[in-house]
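=== Per-residue structure ===
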Amino acid sequence: MKVTVSLKERSYDIHIGQGLLRQCGGYVHALGGSNKVLIVTDDNVAPLYLKTVQTSLESAGIHVSSLVFPHGEGTKSLASLSALYESLAGAGITRSDLVLALGGGVIGDLAGLAAATWLRSVRFVQVPTTLLAQVDSSVGGKVAIDLPQGKNLVGAFHQPSLVLCDPDTLNTLSPLFWRDGLGEVIKYGCIMDEELFLLLEQLAPLGREALMQNMDAILAHCILNKAAIVGKDEH
């Protein structure tokens, strides 16, 4: 399933489907011009999915480096951004290459801001692994880090070149992060998508397994709604 985010200057695709992590090399290769990729992830996600993504990219003939941060909001910091710049330099990432964010919203924000500012902007790919990131933060190009004075005070609007949403990654979410993302899904239904709300109302009593069996459709509803808003106003 594919959703296209239509923007004034350029558009990009969001793909939704099981097994996309194993296929990401082909999607990245199809973007063209990328010989090197730096994967940015965290220590919760890396043991689960980093090897799969790295193997897929390398099978497509792409040279891969990776950087793993501690999980949590504390990683959205100037210190982390500085460490990421060091890795970009060490990996020799040029404007022909790209950054791949593998994780939740924190990793997407950090990697996206680095991509927006490295060499005055390089391309980046979002591979969100949490429900909240798949339905919200990976769509729209808002990237930022926190300062001691407040959240998201240093940031940019930098749209990804590609987003890959693999529902399989949601199977490893803890109940806390599952509920966290599901709250955002319900919000879409409440404020702008009656069909989605009725679907959730039907599935919720059957539990998480029933929701997961219909996750492609749920993600598509949410992403279409967010993409429509971003298409009208990127900022």
